Structure formats: C-alpha cells, structure tokens
TrEMBL record:
It comes from the Bacteria. Pfam families: PqiA (PF04403). This is Paraquat-inducible protein A. The chain crosses the membrane at residues 50-71, 97-121, 142-160, 172-193. Keywords: Membrane, Transmembrane, Transmembrane helix. The lineage of its organism: Bacteria, Pseudomonadati, Thermodesulfobacteriota, Desulfuromonadia, Geobacterales.
Length: 210
C-alpha cells in the first residue's frame, strides 16, 4: 500500500506548517500566513550553481596566488599576497585580525567551494557522493561566515588611505577577489538546497534498488 500522507514544511519566517506540493518548473510556493517564499522549483539550479562554482574555484586560486597589491616607494616596489598579509598582521601582533581574515577570506570560501564541488559535480555525472548529508550541513553552517565582500571593502578603504603617502598598485588578486565576490553571490542565489536534497536522495534510492 502506498503512503499518501502529504509532507509538511515549516515556514522559516513564521513557523506555520503547510503541505509540500508539487510545483511547475520556474514556480515557487509562498507561505499562506506571511507570504515568505518557502521553496522554488528551479530545474536548472544544479547546472547553474556548478558553473558558478567551477568559475569561482579558478578565480579563487588566482586571488590567493597573485599579489593583492603592491606599494612603490622611491622606485622600490613591494608586493604582497593575501596570505602574506595574514602573516604580516600576525607578526605585528594583530593576531585576532589576522585570524579573522584567514578564516573569512581564505578558509571559509575554500570550504564552501570544495563542498559545492564535492556535492554537485558527482550529481551532474549521475553519481551520489559519500556522506553528502555532512557536506549539506557544512554549507548551512558556514553560510553566515562568508564575508569576502567585507574584505574587499576593507582593502579598498586601506588603498585610499595609503595613496596619500605611497603609490599603491592594485594587483591581479584584488580584481580576482572582486570577481569572486560576484561569483559566490551568484552561486548562493542559484543554489537550491531543497532541489539538491531531492536529487541526491532520488539517485541514492535508484542505486539501492538496482
């Protein structure tokens, strides 16, 4: 006998329990009480998120390998990478700032991109990655800590102040971080956790039934 009990979903704004209904492609369901968007049926969310993620991975490598900016004083030029800036802050005794920059600008984006690639690339190839619930929860936990745009704002403010005393030359990494900010925002917008959960669970059941 088939279980026809409808699934329930709680609104993330007002906690109202409502039935989970099937939607046509491109449509969305909203809360009957407060009007908040509950979920969408974005059939191409995996493809778009994976495309943004792979592009962001390449930009992220460039943002960390190349200098973020260079300072020229009396003909002498000194360039520094983001990780070099983290080490410099640590050596100068600003260890809390150094740790914060390391976590929010390097580790969190790297973890986010690695988790998305680990989940979406096998899914695109018709496979189910092992321990995928762990990586889905990881994405949910690190979401509030992704603050590359805050780093960009801080760097720009610092560059404006430094131009009064030195010649500041923006490096390739600075422009890479600007592009990375846009790509991460696009990936976050395209990512549909509900759709990814459904596809992962569906493929897992298909593999188990064979």
């Amino acid at each position: 006998m088939t279980d026809r009990t409808p699934q329930l979903i709680a609104c993330h704004e007002c906690d109202l329990l409502q039935r989970d209904i099937q939607l046509n492609p491109g449509c969305y369901a909203s809360c009957r009480r407060c009007g908040a968007v509950l979920y969408r049926n974005a059939t191409d969310s995996v493809d778009r998120t994976l495309a943004y993620t792979l592009a962001a991975c390449m930009v992220f490598l460039g943002a960390n390998l190349f200098p973020i900016f260079a300072i020229e004083v009396q003909g002498d030029r000194s360039a520094i990478t983001l990780f070099g800036a983290v080490l410099s802050l640590w050596d100068q005794g600003m260890r809390s700032v150094s740790t914060l920059v390391l976590i929010t600008a390097i580790l969190i984006p790297a973890l986010e991109l690695a988790s998305l690639t680990y989940l979406l690339l096998p899914l695109k190839l018709g496979k189910v990655p092992p321990r995928y619930p762990l990586f889905m929860r990881t994405l949910q936990c690190i979401e509030p800590w992704g603050m590359v745009e805050v780093l960009m704002l801080g760097v720009l403010v610092s560059l404006v102040k430094l131009t009064n005393n030195f010649r500041v030359i923006p490096g390739m990494a600075l422009w890479s971080f600007a592009v990375l900010t846009l790509l991460l925002a696009a990936a976050a917008t395209a990512f549909n956790a509900r759709d990814v959960w459904a596809q992962l669970d569906g493929k897992r059941r298909d593999l188990e039934s064979k």
